[in-house]
Amino acid sequence: MLAKLPSLSPLLAMLERRSPVDERDAKALLELPHSLHALAAGQYLFRDGAKPEQCHVLLDGYVFRHKVVGDGGRQIIGLHMRGDLLGFQGSLLGTMDNNVQALTAVRLAAIDAEAMAELAQRRPSLAKAIWVSAMADASLSREWLASIGRRDAHARLAHLLCELFVRQEAAGLAAGDSFELPMNQEQLGDTLGLTSVHINRTLRALEVEGLISRRRRSVRIEDWAALKRAGDFRPTYLHLQEEEPAAHATSSETSRPLFAGWRSGSGKKLAFG
Amino acid sequence: MLAKLPSLSPLLAMLERRSPVDERDAKALLELPHSLHALAAGQYLFRDGAKPEQCHVLLDGYVFRHKVVGDGGRQIIGLHMRGDLLGFQGSLLGTMDNNVQALTAVRLAAIDAEAMAELAQRRPSLAKAIWVSAMADASLSREWLASIGRRDAHARLAHLLCELFVRQEAAGLAAGDSFELPMNQEQLGDTLGLTSVHINRTLRALEVEGLISRRRRSVRIEDWAALKRAGDFRPTYLHLQEEEPAAHATSSETSRPLFAGWRSGSGKKLAFG
DNA sequence: CGGTCGTTTGATTACGATCAAACGAAGTGG
DNA sequence: CCACTTCGTTTGATCGTAATCAAACGACCG
Fold it and tell me: Which of A26, A147, A210, B58 is the most buried (most CB within 10 A)?
């Protein structure tokens, strides 16, 4: 009955990017009842403390999650783009512990969370795919944690730009070597734990070093290798199938030393496994 | 057939702390085949880049996850204690993107990841409980992100101490108003994105302010209300059933303003939902 | 053409890093 | 039982990255 391209196909595409979905399950997913909505930039999808009963599939535009700390500071803890599933975790946990807000104008499809959970229970390949996408999401948070905790402003910003580029590319949103930076400098600061002033200067630095150039909200990558190096960017944590251009052997990850920082006296290591 | 207390009961207890598990499913879980292991402090459970085929239930001791960034710095991205399930996410994603290492001497049970996943597929209440615990884990990362990004050293440390206390209490590990701090000051620094020197001074500050006292690796909470205040600690993000002593109305979370930091011109807010 | 939002730049401050060294506790071997 | 070692904690002095405060500038909009 659905006309040409089903509304939920961006969700399916996102899931299939990380885990195969068999044909019957795909069909069932696309036929899930849903309603379409449009939001202006700044509107909330979920608020901290809310009890979500629907989850949303992001069809177009950008969305961010954030937490507000005691002194009024805001930390952006996640960015979402086309295909991402929002609020599924909140519906499982019962209560949202963060805010989800539209970064740009946004189109989305709302699905009953119960129906979603029930479908996942009956469709193993879908359940797996949703699991994998949720775990990949968590993986992003952990990489951000490492970035904010242990990289300086320059590397942090370079890392975020790399991530945005690769994710947009994977979602079919990046054109060539340019991508959209859907946030202003204050929001960038709140994402990286910096101030907007410092973002401005750091952005400028990346530009004069010849790593990127900007025009309005669009960023062009002038030197991908150098940007990756500056940001210490290794895309494994994104858990996307395709491993980037090439020249990036995954096996090298496995053979890294990894003993850095541990100086316990207990002689034997690796006795387990 | 199982003698007295089944080995996997800490896992079941952890799951039931967040989501009910019905009796048949609980029994099936406890009967999962597994092998028991002991590790010394410093040994690795999983390494970045590994492809785990087993997951581990932590029976005793403490474990931490960490990432190593380009310049050799280490960021600790998670702490685990009795009952926690480790490596399930890694087995789903196929490749570990962080290291999991014993913080103290540790006892654990290893379960075949396939068997675990299959059991979850056949046992709805278990599947739900595992989902919820995984999502709660992700929720912790997000709170840590907010803490490292937007709280100063003093608040960050106070927040971590609050979290450790509440989690140990929930796991039945905290005695009265004292709890174990299973890490040294360098590890605390790597957890909070600070140096060990600064941890030392901040710890001292919390002590002279009368919020805590210490003896060896044990911390006693001298003023819980003040410590929570100092750390901006609101335990919602832990997603534990019990909501702490009392005097903490969850509904107050819902009614907070939450507009802080957003200054978009697009007049209407909250038009959605 | 004023008004608002976002970007850019400058001057100063401060929080936490870094460097360095002494001290204390626990374990080891003579 | 006491040197001796090792690991962790503590303290001091100085440095540097990023915050803060302040203001001008630029772009878009009605």
Answer: A147
- Tell me how many residue pairs between chain A and chain B have CB atoms under 8 A apart: 241
Backbone φ and ψ of A41, nearest 5°: -55, 135
Q: How many CB atoms lie within 10 A of CB A220?
A: 12
3-state secondary structure A215-255: ECCEEEECCHHHHHHHHCCCHHHHCCCCCCCCCCCCHHHHC
Query: For residues B7-24, b (16+ Cβ closer than 10 Å) or e, as one string?
Result: bbbbbbebbbbbbebeee
Distance A78 CA to D26 C1' (A): 30
CB of A2 less than 8 A from some CB of B = no
Neighbouring-strand partners of residue A58: A108
Instruction: Report the pLDDT value the prediction gives residue B4, as an integer from 0 to 100.
Output: 62
Rounded to two decimals, the pTM is 0.87
**CA distance linking residue A257 with residue B129, whole number of Å:** 36
What local confidence, expressed as pLDDT, does residue B176 receive?
87
> In what helix (H) or strand (E) does residue B185 lie, and over which residues does it extend?
helix B185-192
Residue A227's pLDDT band (boundaries 50, 70, 90)?
A: very high
Q: Which of B93, B255, B261 sits opposite A74 (nearest CB)?
A: B261
